[in-house]
Amino acid sequence: MPDPMLLGLLVAAIAIGWWLGRLDVKHHRQHRDSSSSPALTRNYFVGLNYLLNEQPDQAIETFVQTLEVNSETIDTHIALGNLFRLRGETDRAVKIHQNLLARPSLTEAQSSHVQLELARDFLKLGLLDRAERLLIRLIRSAHDDDIRRSGKRLLIDLFEREKEWQKALDIAQPQLIRHDQNIRRAAAHWLCELAEEDIANGSVSLARKRLRQALNIDEKCVRTNWLFARMEHHTGQYRNEIRILKRIREQDADFTPITLGPISTAYQMLDDEQGLIEFLQEQIDHAPYISSVLMLAEHLRTREGINSAIDLVSSHLQHYPSLRGVDYLTDLYLKETVTRPHDHDRIELLKRHTSQLLDKRPRHRCERCGFTASQLYWHCPQCRSWGMVKPITGLEGE
Ligand SMILES: [Zn+2]
């Protein structure tokens, strides 16, 4: 059993114990005799015993049976329902939460709280229609701001799963975008998603409008400039493409590596090798990513010969160790030793090792949850944050 689960059950057990204690006091006050020890208390200790013996299923079952639903125990019932959901027994969580909702004695705040948890159950079960209906009704009717905000966040989560970007925006605007940094970052990406759909449908001006809107919401959203640049590329405006891609490193320097390939291609389309070399030199002075060093080395190799490329990469590696740099150097040594079979074989063995090491290395990592992948994701598939998967830097990356 995971620790949070055990902790939750212990908290529930303590809450039940506290409630039973109060019940006992009332019982004594009302009846002034202690002869009839309530069955409830006995059940409580049976449940606690199950819990201490790490038999959580029996413990939960006993607690649910022990506890009558009233205004003092409602939170404990909600917590027990949540524990079932946490354990993956979401059908049982639904039963508990629906059973609570059927009680006429619930206050408005309690009813809202239960509805929120029931919506979470439906989301977990993938019953998105039911969750959506419940949440829309709750957001309209709840008087408590916290409940409405929590309801909106769940609804946004649901619309993201359905890729209903406009609906997510409608819910988030204006308060959540203004006050919640994560939602602000997400909203800029929803607009980028819509812009990508527009581009695919040939509505380029609408896409531009949405991207400007996204930048207004989050000026750090590099994806906006990434898409602006792609549009320039498709119409052959390579100078504009380069200019826009260079803005990305000002927005968020961590994303610079993703721009190096497209900038290099754009210079090649312009047949401007000198421009590319100057850019790469300036980029290395600015932030010495290995990709730019290797691109520059390749140009030096074709222009000045293999030794210039070896010198550049070797001196870079002295200050910034890099597996990709070593792999590239090994390639150069292989070319250099082609007439010396003995040396060539040894270097080929080394090359096999560096290649194997590189093959196993992901190129991108989510800053929030640590998810890694070879490709770049704007939306982390694991923790579902936006714009947090970034190129890996350092010894094994850029
Ligand atoms: Zn993540």
Features:
398 residues, single chain, mainly alpha, elongated, Serine Threonine Protein Phosphatase 5, Tetratricopeptide repeat, 20 helices, binds zinc ion, three-stranded antiparallel β-sheet
Structure, explained:
The chain is mostly helical. It contains 20 helices and three strands. Strands 2-1-3 form a three-stranded antiparallel sheet, with no helix packed on it. A hairpin with a 5-residue loop joins strand 1 (364-366) and strand 2 (372-373). Helix 2 (39-52) packs antiparallel against helix 3. The longest helix is centred in the first third of the chain and has 29 residues, at 3-31. 33% of the residues are buried. Residues 366, 368-369, 371, 380, 382-383, 385, 388 line the site of zinc ion.
Strand residue percentage: under 5%
Q: Oligomer, anyone?
A: single chain
CATH architecture of the domain at 288-357: Alpha Horseshoe
How is the biggest beta sheet arranged?
Answer: 3 strands, antiparallel
The CATH topology of the domain at 288-357 turns out to be: Serine Threonine Protein Phosphatase 5, Tetratricopeptide repeat
Bound molecules: zinc ion
Coarse shape:
elongated
CATH class of the domain at 288-357: Mainly Alpha
CA-CA gap between termini:
40 Å
Q: Summarize the helix and strand pattern as letters.
A: HHHHHHHHHHHHHHHHHHHHEEE
Strand order of the largest sheet: 2-1-3
